[in-house]
Each structure stands twice: as C-alpha cells, then as structure tokens.
C-alpha cells in the first residue's frame, strides 16, 4: 500500500449518512478517504457505564491498530465527525498520532477539548447543529470541513521537516511579552531559531511533548507561570513533565509571571481573591497577586525541578520585577514577594545550579544580556551579543 491516505473516523452506527456525505465531499477535491468505523457495536442495546467505557476503548484501539500498520509517510490527514461519544473516541485516536499530522475534528462540542488537544495539532470545527441528519446546516458545515481538510491533505506533511533544525524553547505570556520579544531578537541575531510556548496552562503541554521528543537545543523557561496553576489555582491541561522534560538540555529559568494567579473573569472571582491586589488582564482573565506562603510553595517546586535536572542550568532572579505589572507603580508590585522567592532559592538551590541575581526588571535589556551570557557560559554556540 503506497497511496497517501486520508483517514475518516466516524461512528457508523449513528453517523453513517453524515460520514458518507463527508467522504463524497472530500472526493470532490480528489481526496479518497478511508472510513474507519469507531462505533460501539452495541446492536442498539443500552450499555451500562462500564460496558460503554470498555466499548469506547475497543473502538479507539481498532482504529489505532489499523493506523499502526500504515507507513507513517502514507498518512497525510485525519478527520473525524462525532457527537459527544464519537468525538471522545476520535480524540483518543488523534492524540496518539504525530503532533504535526493535520487533524480535523467536527463535533457538537459537548465538552471542553482544550485539555485533551493541548499537546497536538487538532483543528476543531463546531457542527453548530447536532450531527443527526443531513439538514442544510450540517451539509454546509461538512462541505466547508471537506474543503479545509483537502487543503491540508494536498499542502502539508505529517512531519515538521525531514531534517529539522533544533530550536531554542522559550516560554512567554502577555505579562512577559516585552522580555520575550527582546530575547527573541537577541537570539535571532545569533542565528538561533526560537519556538515560543504560551505558558497559559495549555501551552506547557505542547512544550513538554516536544521537549521529550528532543526538539530543542536549549530551554529558556522565562515564564514558568504554569507552576502556579499546577500547585495553586488556575485551569490547565495535564502536564506532568512540564518542569522535567528535556532535563539534560541547557536550561535557564527566570521567575517570570510566577507572582500572580491566572484566573477567570473578574465577575467570577471570590471575595478572597478580590481582596488581594489584582487587575483585569483582559475581559476573560484576571491576574491576582500571590501571597507570601503561595510564593514559597511555587518557589520550592520550581527549585526542586532545577535541582533534579542534569544539564547545565541557571536560575536568574531579576529583583526589579517578575512581570509587566510587578514594577514601580504596577498593580501587583511587591518587592518583598520577590525577596521571598530569592530567599528560597538561596536556601534550596543545589550548588551545581548557577544562581544569578540582578537588580533590573525581567524585561530590562540587562536581563536579556545576562541570559545570553549565561548561554555562552554553558558552551552554547553564541557570540554573546545582544541588541
């Protein structure tokens, strides 16, 4: 079997007509999709909870067994259509595929898929109406999805590059954007490619996956904010390897944005959080300043991860501020909180981890210069110049 394949996942017990229509629409664009049935095969019976979960496991495994027999270079795109159960089964299959394989999920969105798809590239298309009959709305959605999927099939590959260049991993948020931008410019001057991950509770999952797969030449965890979500509060995907993946690579860590909790809309916050210094980062997100005891918790967790890594590593502490609102006159300015972090670092950091303390803000030019100089001290191929 040498023909490039498009895989269409569907529960044919309940979505036969819709799957066939989607297959026909893909064929309009020259894409011959192979339908894989991920039905529960219940024969119309109502399954108990345990029976249904077992049937879902079997359905996803059947699809994985088929795909596993393909030459990885054959599989060009995967598309799935489903309601709640069908979408969940399809996601179990899709998340086992290569991260960069184009994947499209048409679903009624009966659950929040973000925690599941955080470490892989899946395009989610809401069906708007229930996937139950070929009505005008569903047909329009399926036609659009077929056109998009055909484009992916023809123009993209399941791998990033046949000979990928390893990049420097960098974590960032809006609260550290100025620091990240300055650092990206500095690394670009050195001819280094940078991959930036949004440290918002979901981006860290993708960072972990690529780090485990050896995609990075070095790691600059400028914004380890997700440690506050993992240990205190804030939504996040599962990311057990967020602070250990790539442990043998050169690693520089700064306490960027660990001075606040990333919470939801201002109107949803409890009185306890509203009593603290805070600000609306946007209409959807509010940043609430950490208390001393909370800073001690995240500092200890971050330092422990540095201590257990094996590559050359450093912790840079910019006492001028850890985020854009942690500055003179900022909404969550707190020099004492920064000192709390430094105190834990001075007490707990292993001697083989460099501790570099400076008076400037995390976004200052001097901080960027320190990061570059530290990379050079690790033997990383840089000239040590900064813009």
From TrEMBL:
Question: Under what name is this protein listed?
Answer: Uncharacterized protein
UniProt-listed Gene3D superfamilies: Uncharacterised protein family UPF0261, NC domain, Uncharacterised protein family UPF0261, NN domain
**Matches recorded under CDD domains:** Tm-1-like
**PANTHER family per UniProt:** UPF0261 DOMAIN PROTEIN (AFU_ORTHOLOGUE AFUA_1G10120) (PTHR31862:SF1)
User: What range(s) does the UPF0261 domain occupy?
Assistant: 51-155, 166-376
InterPro entries (UniProt xref): Tobamovirus_resist_UPF0261, UPF0261_C, UPF0261_N
Specify the domain of life of the species encoding this protein: Bacteria
User: Source taxonomy lineage?
Assistant: Bacteria, Pseudomonadati, Pseudomonadota, Alphaproteobacteria, Hyphomicrobiales
């Amino acid at each position: 079997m040498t023909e490039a394949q498009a895989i269409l996942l569907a529960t044919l017990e309940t979505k036969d007509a819709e799957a066939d229509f989607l297959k026909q629409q893909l064929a309009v664009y020259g894409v011959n999709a192979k339908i894989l049935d991920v039905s529960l095969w219940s024969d119309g019976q109502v399954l108990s909870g345990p029976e249904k979960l077992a049937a879902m496991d079997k359905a996803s495994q059947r699809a994985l067994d088929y795909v596993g027999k393909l030459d990885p270079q054959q599989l060009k795109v995967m598309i799935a259509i489903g309601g709640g159960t069908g979408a969940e089964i399809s996601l179990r299959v899709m998340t086992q595929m290569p991260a960069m394989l184009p994947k499209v999920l048409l679903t009624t969105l009966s659950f929040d898929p973000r925690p599941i798809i955080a470490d892989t590239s899946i395009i989610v298309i809401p069906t708007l109406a229930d996937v139950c009959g070929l009505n005008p709305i569903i047909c329009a959605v399926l036609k659009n999805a077929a056109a998009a999927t055909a484009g992916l099939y023809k123009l993209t590959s399941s791998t990033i590059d046949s000979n990928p260049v390893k990049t420097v991993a960098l974590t960032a948020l809006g609260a550290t954007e100025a620091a990240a931008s300055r650092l990206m410019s500095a690394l670009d001057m050195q001819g280094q490619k940078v991959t930036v991950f949004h440290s918002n509770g979901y981006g860290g999952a993708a960072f972990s996956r690529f780090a485990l797969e050896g995609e990075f030449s070095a790691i600059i965890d400028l914004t380890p904010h997700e440690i506050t979500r993992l240990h205190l509060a804030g939504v996040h995907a599962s990311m057990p390897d967020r602070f250990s993946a790539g442990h043998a690579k050169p690693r520089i860590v700064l306490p960027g944005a660990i001075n606040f909790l990333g919470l939801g809309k201002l109107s949803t916050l409890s009185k306890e959080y509203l009593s603290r210094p805070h600000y609306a980062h946007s209409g959807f997100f509010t940043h609430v300043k950490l208390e001393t005891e909370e800073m001690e918790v995240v500092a200890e967790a971050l330092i422990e991860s540095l201590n257990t890594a094996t590559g050359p590593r450093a912790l840079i502490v910019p006492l001028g501020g850890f985020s854009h609102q942690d500055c003179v006159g900022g909404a969550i300015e707190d020099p004492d909180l920064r000192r709390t972090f430094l105190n834990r670092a001075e007490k707990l950091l292993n001697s083989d981890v460099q501790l570099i303390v400076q008076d400037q803000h995390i976004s200052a030019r001097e901080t960027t210069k320190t990061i570059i100089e530290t990379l050079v001290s690790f033997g990383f191929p840089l000239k040590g110049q900064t813009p």
